[in-house]
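Incident review: delayed structure delivery

Summary: a single-chain prediction request sat in the queue longer than the usual turnaround. Root cause was a stuck worker, restarted by the on-call engineer. No data loss occurred. The affected request and its eventual output are reproduced below so the record is complete for anyone auditing the incident later.

Affected input:
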Amino acid sequence: MNESAIISELDLEILNALQINPRAEWSRIADALELSAPTVARRWNALAGQGQAWITPAPGQRYLSAGWSAFIHLSSSPSESEALIEQLCSEPAFGTVSLVTGAHDLFIDCFASSHEELMDIVTGAFPRLPGVTHREVVFVTKLYRQASEWRSGTLEPARARLVSAEPLPEQSAYAPDRLDAALLEELAKDGRASWAELGAACRVSPQTARRRVERFLATGYMTLRCDASSSAQQGLREVTLVLNVPAEFVDGVGSFFAALPNCRLSAQVLGAQNLLVTLWVRDYLEVQAYERELAQRAPGSAVISRQAVVRTFKRLGHVLDEAGRSRSVVPLPLWRETS
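Output delivered after worker restart:
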């Protein structure tokens, strides 16, 4: 690994600050880290320029009130796996594509702006995909925690509080229009683009761009999230547990996992299983402790499968290289105009 690919402790602190507040002013992050704003901006620009880190729109806590999501498990013939992965990465609706251990080869999350669109993807996309030998689709019905809420914990708590965003005024539900969709697409390319840059790209004033972005963030349908390459993961390994929990326990178990610092995702799903949890662990043996806790909290629960991620090829629309660096962006159809 060359020197430019190494992420320093200071860079990790900047990334943690941007996980907490993705569009925080550089001066605010600089004050928390006791640096100058130009230094923080320069280091971020270097990370972003190398594909080591990026900020992108992501589903918010209320996303399922406005959009639709599903998880897909795919198996494929080895001779066509490379072509399959390439095509999956090119499809906008397939947000994250990972090679995993276990009964299936690939784990994918899928997003659509309507139920009809999701059904079209489920019924229409797969016949065009090469080498698929088996598929299993489960619909997301409730979110307890999303990856945008995960924090690395690099910053001391006092410094983390200094960069925390003030809550936006609560915004009631509304129907997105063409401008909202265009702004989301521009943010997918650069989640820290200035209001002036966003406005120019969408042919509106900076003030209008800011008002619109803050409006759809305040609804809770959308949020912004900071992701980084494998170099920033500090030895963490991604594991997904697919669970079947008795109905009377499922909310409690979903919330239990969601409260864990290393939980990236906790979601109720509709399928042979009813709960899917993704954890970042340092040792795979940690998973056994969570399974023991599950057995105590929810007797009768069953672990349907355990999946360790071997490699992620695409993460929330960003196509990644072997080191997990962003190399291109395929904006997700998270939210499209309704009129």
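Verification: The radius of gyration is 20 Å.
Action items: add queue-age alerting; document worker restart procedure.
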